[in-house]
Fold this sequence. Notes:
- By secondary structure, the chain is α+β, with helices and mostly antiparallel strands.
- The chain has helices at residues 2-5, 36-48; strands at residues 13-22, 29-32, 54-58, 65-69, 73-83.
- Helix content is 20%, strand content 42%.
- The longest helix is centred in the middle third of the chain and has 13 residues, at 36-48.
Amino acid sequence: MAQQFNPNPQNIKKRYSVLVFIKGSTAPLVLYVKDAQALYQELSEKMVANQAVLIEKETEGPLKKVCFVSNQISALAIQEEQYM
């Protein structure tokens, strides 16, 4: 859709974020990091672990630092966004 309004498609860049859905919350946490795939893998492993741990991350987006407990994660997703 961004290409529709942009005559120069080389200006369009992609960034990835990890969406963390927390139990009881209506909106996910959107975490912008350098390696979204690695964070997704790390969180998915902690999600299924038997012991609950506190996860604290520094991010590059509007949320600068975030923490949550691993047993409160209900779902994860990787989101791709286009920007100029």
